[in-house]
UniProtKB/TrEMBL annotation:
SUPFAM superfamilies: ATPase domain of HSP90 chaperone/DNA topoisomerase II/histidine kinase, Homodimeric domain of signal transducing histidine kinase. It is a multi-pass membrane protein. Signal peptide: none annotated. This is histidine kinase. Pfam families: HAMP (PF00672), HATPase_c (PF02518). Gene3D superfamilies: 1.10.287.130, Histidine kinase-like ATPase, C-terminal domain. It is found in: Cell inner membrane. Residues 262-458 form the Histidine kinase domain.
Length: 458
């Protein structure tokens, strides 16, 4: 039996913790393939160089510094032995000469002196620690050293009884000072390799981006005939598969359009015969019902032909929203209805003009037929074009808002059904919107009626 305590233990389990960390990490990692590919190259390179640099700094650098400091300390110890073992002149000129010429050390002896107060040891100074240890181990006398700063010299003072031996030596004699050259070469080589990787990655990512743009354009109904597969073999296969899929879809659309057009044409011929026979039969009251049925069939057939024509390919062009909505506003005024609109963003849009005009006109005429007031709000952003149609009509029940988009679907009390209604207006509207890569949805209007929303990629 599952208890509350068992659930708490499961939540605190390491597996759930790792899953939570994985989700947190995925949310913060970049989503683009280009950036992820760069990270796959850069992160292992940085980790490898960090490990190499740490090993080099810890072993090679420290070992070389220790040996250099040991050698300098040994030379200083030899100078002290010479001074204390053999008689010297008053200014210690012979010991100074030997140190300068043979050991490359600059020394001086202060007859009466004291060591300066100890300096604060730097936290990251390898030289200070190693040199201090060597002097303590080999010379074993009070000392003072100065390794701080950017000077090329290191100063060492050692107390010899009442005298102070002052030694100046070059920093590179006690310290592996050329280590930064290794780091500079390592970082420089890494930057060059990263630059080359970026150039190659851009060449590999560009065909993928081109394929994505071609697929997006096809989804919006735009033509993209200049696309051809290129890049790596896998990308080429994906591009070829996209071209074949696009051709199959276009061929299927052409076949369906041709079939619908053919069927509608044949039905129109039959209806024309019916109307001719009814006209020859005269104006008999018994035939009035049959005349009405033939007229209804004629209206449905015209709507059917319009639905088929919506599948026909149309080139993409520019369309001004203000001109389109201005014409619809004039039509509302002629029918003594009220229409207001507002446009936020660019006025010109890139769509299939005739199809988009029909899309907007269908929704507007539907509102004009059943409402007195219509407000159209347009928002044109960098990514999306959104049009909201808000009216004060009777609306459509929420449970039937998806059904009304089905071709020839009719409701007993639906707002899209009158003497001339065929049930194809909203179906055609959604079909046009989806051919642009968007959709048409229905909702509640703040005016109390129906809200129809067109949302397509900009």
């Amino acid at each position: 039996m599952v208890t509350f305590d068992s659930l708490r233990r499961e939540e605190r389990s390491p597996a759930s913790g790792w899953k939570g960390f994985g989700r947190w990490l995925r949310r913060r990692l970049p989503t683009g393939l280009y950036v992820r590919s760069l990270l796959i190259i850069i992160i292992p390179m940085v980790l490898l160089q960090s490990v190499v640099a740490a090993v080099f700094m810890e072993r090679h650098w420290q070992m070389v510094t220790q040996r250099l400091s040991m050698a300098v300390t040994r030379d200083i110890a030899a100078i002290i032995q010479i001074i204390e073992t053999y008689p010297q002149d008053a200014d210690f000129s012979e010991a100074t000469r030997i140190a300068r010429e043979q050991l490359n050390l600059q020394i001086s002896i202060e007859p009466d002196g004291e060591l300066p107060p100890p300096r604060e040891k730097p936290f990251f100074s390898i030289l200070d620690g190693i040199l201090s240890d060597e002097i303590s181990d080999q010379i074993k006398r009070p000392y003072w050293i100065d390794t701080v700063g950017d000077s090329s010299l290191v100063e060492i003072r050692i107390k010899l009884g009442a005298k102070i031996l002052r030694v100046l030596t070059k920093r590179n004699q006690t310290y592996a000072s050329n280590t930064h050259i290794f780091i500079v070469w390592m970082v420089g080589a890494s930057l060059v390799l990263i630059g080359v990787s970026i150039l190659f990655l851009r060449g590999q990512i560009r065909p993928i981006l081109t394929l994505a743009q071609a697929a997006e354009s096809f989804g919006k109904g735009h033509k993209h005939d200049d696309f051809y597969p290129r890049g790596a073999d896998e990308v080429r296969r994906a591009g070829l598969a996209f071209i074949l899929m696009r051709e199959r879809i276009e061929r299927q659309i052409e076949q369906r359009t041709a079939m619908l057009t053919g069927v509608s044409h044949d039905l129109r011929t039959v209806l024309t015969r019916f109307k001719l026979q009814l006209a020859l039969a005269g104006n008999s009251p018994e035939l009035q019902g049959l005349n009405d049925d033939v007229n209804d069939m004629q209206s449905m057939l015209e709507a059917y032909m319009a639905f088929a024509r919506s599948e026909i390919e149309e080139d993409v062009g520019e369309l001004k929203l203000s001109e389109l909505l201005g014409k619809i506003e004039t039509d509302f005024a002629l029918h003594e209805k009220t229409l207001s609109y507002s446009i936020e963003g660019e006025d010109e849009i890139l769509v299939r003009p005739n199809a988009f005009t029909r899309l907007v006109a269908n929704l507007a005429s539907n509102a004009r037929r059943y409402a007195n007031t219509l407000n159209i709000e347009v928002k044109h952003s960098a990514k999306w074009l959104t049009l909201n149609f808000d009216d004060d009509g009777p609306g459509i029940p929420e449970k039937n808002r998806e059904d009304v988009f089905k071709p020839f679907f009719r409701l007993d009390e639906a707002r899209n059904l009158d003497a001339s209604g065929t049930g194809l207006g909203l179906a055609i509207a959604r079909d046009i919107a989806r051919s642009h890569g968007g959709n048409v949805t229905l909702g509640d209007s703040p005016l109390g009626g129906l809200r129809a929303t067109i949302r397509i990629p900009a």
